[in-house]
Design goal:
- With 102 residues, this protein is mostly helical.
- It is built from six helices and no strands.
- The protein has one domain: Orthogonal Bundle (Arc Repressor Mutant, subunit A), CATH 1.10.10.10.
- The longest helix is centred in the middle third of the chain and has 22 residues.
Amino acid sequence: MIAVHEEQRLLLEALRRIPLDSQVVLELYYWENMAAPELAQVLGIPEGTARSRLRRARELLTHRMKVLARSPTLLKTTLSDLEKWVTSLREQLGESECADET
C-alpha cells in the first residue's frame, strides 16, 4: 500500500512540474483516452505534431520523475507501467469527484 502511494505521489509531483501544454497533452492522451488523430483535432494541429508533442511530454515526465524519485526502485516501478498508474489515478480522482457531489 505504501509503495502504491509513493508511486502515485511521484507521478503526480512530476506531472505538476512539467509545462502546462505537456500536462494537457498527457491528460488528453491518458485521462481522456485520446489517440494522436483525436489529439490533433482537439488541439488544431497536424497529427505528426500531436505525436511529437505527446512523445516530448512523455520524455519530460520521465525526466522529471528521474529527478524526483527517492530511489531507483521507486522510479523503475513507477515507469514500468505508467499507463496502469495513470488509470489508477483517473479512477481515484473520479471516485473523489463523485464523493464531492454527494
